[in-house]
Amino acid sequence: MVGARAPMQLYSVFYGLTQIAVEPFVRLFGARVGKDLCAPLERILLHKMAEEGQCGRAMRRPDDASLDSEDRVVSPIEAIIEPRPRPVDTFTVRRLFPTPRVRNVGPFVFFDHMGPNDFGPGEGINVRPHPHIGLATVTYLFEGEVFHRDSLGFAQVIRPAEVNWMTAGRGIVHSERPVPGAGPMRLHGLQLWVALPLEEEECEPKFDHYDSSALPVVEREGLKVRVVVGQFGGARSAVTTLSEILYLDIELKPGGVFGVPFAEERALYSIEGSFVIDGRTIEPGHLVIVKGGAEVSVESETGARLVLIGGDALDAPRFIDWNFVSSSEARIAAAKEQWRRREFPLVPGDEVEFIPLPGELSP
Length: 363
Description:
alpha+beta; Jelly Rolls; 2 domains; 7-stranded antiparallel β-sheet; 4 helices; 26 strands; globular; disordered N terminus
């Protein structure tokens, strides 16, 4: 019939053929040129699939050196990232990105896994005041508690299944300290950074805390999903964002299966337990970048806890230097000089200490 749209399955078949067809071009012209030759058709098909509600557009293409040639063509896995230990003041975290291979996943530009670490009474993560611009920090805990203070005057304890969302905008300073008077505890959680949209990079700084009641839980056979940010299964988180973002805390029971929601860019990270995706077993502490246009599910024989993050591709490239994120290198340079001169506002109740710029001596 004239004007009728092709079924979703047909677009899927054509999209799959583009993924297969790219390989001869890659071999003939090299990876960059070969993939670019096939990109226009790929974008058209992904757009059609998105119109049919089947998927978002895929920004990256498989480039993981650990995948062989055939896997790179047909696998929904774009990359598997191992964590790297990184010091954060007096605390060590496992950082998943940014890396040379994965700079971001949608608007998420930074992913740190902290803990699990056991602390004695009055101990815990102890990060001195430090500045941010151009981003929002997203803190989410599985265990323990952290005392947040910032230059806006907020003082907030965050506990498991809660969110601290701090919008840096044109500039904010905060610290993360042990909770006064706290007993022994195990600290375990994630801190992610979200790049603000271009038009909001220099917005007024803001802080929002959301308790567990703001993050709805969806339970289905074999799994339990807490909607940290965005929406899933008819439930929407109360966390307010400046762009469409997906962040899910997923508990897979033994034998459970989870159908991964579509997003333009997305990734899965195993917190505890292993899971299987496309026949590959992903061990705890590994991040899997999943093609935006691929229909895929994960399962776990023994049970697992994982998080899914995703969203639209960044509206422009971002520069990241220390704690600063911006579309402008000059803006970052100005922020560094501003911190060097101690021109950022102080954190009430935590005015004495601060983290110096990398390479500079502590006071």
